Amino acid sequence: MTEKPHPLHSTHSVEQTIVEHIIANPEFAHALSLEAEALKSDEPEVAARLNHWLEKAQFHPDRKTTFTKFDAADYLCTQEDIDAYLEACLEEDSGDGSLIKRAQDDIARATRRLNTKQ
Fold first, then answer.
1. So which domain of life are we looking at (predicted)?
2. What tens digit of pLDDT does each residue of 80-102 get?
3. Residues 114, 70: Cα–Cα separation, whole Å
4. CB atoms inside a 10 Å sphere around CB 99
5. Per-residue pLDDT averaged across 31-55, rounded?
6. Which helix (H) or strand (E) holds 116?
């Protein structure tokens, strides 16, 4: 069996690999954060390196943040929720009725969802 020679220079740095793992795995990022905090007083250089990687991952240009559209109907799970929401919208409406109309639409969606669950 012939061994492949090890490349002297990798095109993908160890640091880049670590940063990618941090981005892909929030639990790993959290563990590194806890470790950095624990090492801060005894091994400040190691803690600084861990924090450097965490910061680099946070501002990585390839990092994609995804958002979901907020829907108030997702949070209207009981009649009490619906009543409180409608009351708050009535109080906050600017007078043109647009907030009340939006609340009615949200409540209608929430009611349909609640009825289909039963």
1. Bacteria
2. 999 999 999 999 999 999 999 99
3. 18
4. 16
5. 93
6. helix 98-117
Residue 57's identity, in one-letter code, is A
pLDDT tens-digit series, residues 56-79: 888 766 656 677 889 999 999 999
Cβ atoms 86, 107 nearer than 8 A: yes
pLDDT value of position 59: 79
**Number of residues assigned to the chain:** 118
Sign (positive or negative) of CA dihedral 9, 15, 18, 24 = negative
pLDDT at 68: 81
Question: Residue 56 is which amino acid?
Answer: K
Q: Tally Cβ neighbours within 10 Å of residue 49.
A: 16
What is the C-alpha separation between 60 and 18, in angstroms, rounded?
A: 12
| Whole-angstrom distance, CA of residue 63 vs CA of residue 57 | 8
